[in-house]
Each structure stands twice: as C-alpha cells, then as structure tokens.
Amino acid sequence: MKRAAGPAAILLAALSTGAWAQPRPAPESGRRMEILLERLDGPAWHTIDPGLVLEQGDRVRFRFSTDFDGYLYVMNQSSSGKYEQLFPREETGQDNRISAGKQYHVPATASAFRIAGPAGYEIVYWLVTPARLTNAPPRPEPPATNRPPKPIPLIPRCDDTMLRARGECIDNSAGPKLPPADEELPRNLAGAGGLSPRDLIFMRQNDTEVISSPAALTAPVIYEFRLAHK
Question: How far apart are alpha carbons 12 and 150 in whole angstroms?
Fold first, then answer.
C-alpha cells in the first residue's frame, strides 16, 4: 500500500473518527475481540457486511473493541502486493493502547481508508499484544524471504445466495480469519515472538465479527481481515 501520492489499494482521506466508552462485562475465562467494517455513505457511516465486495473509491474504517487491555498493530498487504503499516502511525494515530470496554476507530484520527488499486483483496493484519512491542521495526517489512512483492491474483466472487434481494455482492472468503499455515507473515509481525497457538474462534453476529480465545491471552496473537474490492 502506498501513500496518497501514488496508486494504492487503500489511501487516507480526511474524515472524522473517534473512540468512546461502551462497557462490556469480561468473561470469567477467555478473551474476546470484535471488529465491524464501516463505509461512508453520503455524510454518514454505516456498518456493512464484512464480505461486501467494495467499489473503487469507497471510504471505509474499522470499529474495534476488546474485553481486555493491550496494544494493537495493524498492517496491510495491498492487492498490488505492497506492504504498509496502517496503525499506529502519524496519519492514523500513534496511541495504540486499547482498554477493555471501549470501542476504537481504525484509523483513530481524522482520516479513513479509500479503496483503490487492482481488483482483489487487501490483507489487513491485526496483531494484538498484552504488552507494547519494543523491538518492532519502525516500518513494515515483507516476509523474510526478501522476495519482491507480487500482486495477489485472486478476484472476488459474489455468492448468489447471500443478500440477493438487496443486490449486494458478498464474497464469503472475505472478512477475518487465521492466516493460512503456509502464509509468510510480514517480518515485523512474524518477529513479534511468542505468538499464541492457532486456537482463535471466529464467529459472526449480524455484521459484527467476533474473534475469541478460550483462554486469557498471555502472548501476541495475529489474524487477518480480507477486504474484497473490484
């Protein structure tokens, strides 16, 4: 992903965001994270299906909450194969501490993500840690193989059984999921160390994606959110 000066799969646009309190009781055991995808329709933001195939120029943002305290790092691999750190950074907010019972917008500043670039999938990596990373590289790095970035050739497909009456194109392969076992993670994320076992549970509650762990998180966890777009 490139900055606004060049072609990109997600660009920054000046729009207002924020964070607000929304208390949620913590479970006796385990941990829970929630992600909603929002799109700007006219002057207002609306929650959309995580699998909705987005159009060029759509402006989107994430709403994120947890029932535990920690730190959040978000990184993107665009449909052109480029890597970019989305959060924290100067344009999207530097304070990446998250508190239980609050909802946060990502980006956390007066900005949003604008869809552009080749049709395909944005792979948005979410790294959640119980403590701040002190040895993370200052900029995103591709996988350790140092192979040049390659475009992601997959093209989103509509599931004709989903929301046909509303005329929306829904791709069931989009949304949050664990990285495939053979997927090479960006070096600054894979190097976080102590990644938890791959035992996260993914559930859908209306348009809210719920990622839960059966046990308390004592080490970083990583998962991805695939954004499909034309």
Answer: 23
Q: How far is CA 48 from CA 70, 136, 146, 198, 220, in A?
A: 26, 32, 36, 27, 28
Which 3 state secondary structure label does DSSP give 164? helix
* Tokens representing residue 106 in the block: 């990502």
**Residue with tokens 């994430």, as numbered in its chain:** 62
**Cβ–Cβ contacts within 10 Å for residue 3, how many?**
10
> What is the C-alpha to C-alpha distance for residues 122 and 215, in angstroms, rounded to an integer?
29
DSSP string, 137-191: -SS----TT-PPP----------TTSSGGGT--B-TT-EEEPPPTTPPPPHHHHT
For tokens 């049709």, the residue is 119
The DSSP secondary-structure symbol of 54 reads B
Q: DSSP 3-state assignment of 154? A: coil
Residue with tokens 């950074």: 89
**What six digits make up the tokens of 72?**
């959040």
Helix ranges (DSSP H) in 109-205: 187-190
Question: Burial letters for 187-218: b for 16+ Cβ neighbours within 10 Å, e otherwise?
Answer: bbbbebeebbeeebeeeeeeeebebbbeeebe
Give the global pTM: 0.79
pLDDT tens readout for residues 157-209: 887 665 555 678 999 889 999 988 778 888 777 767 566 556 789 999 889 99
Percent of the chain surpassing pLDDT 70: 73
Q: What is the pLDDT of residues 13-49, one digit of tens each?
A: 433 333 333 434 444 457 999 999 999 999 899 999 9
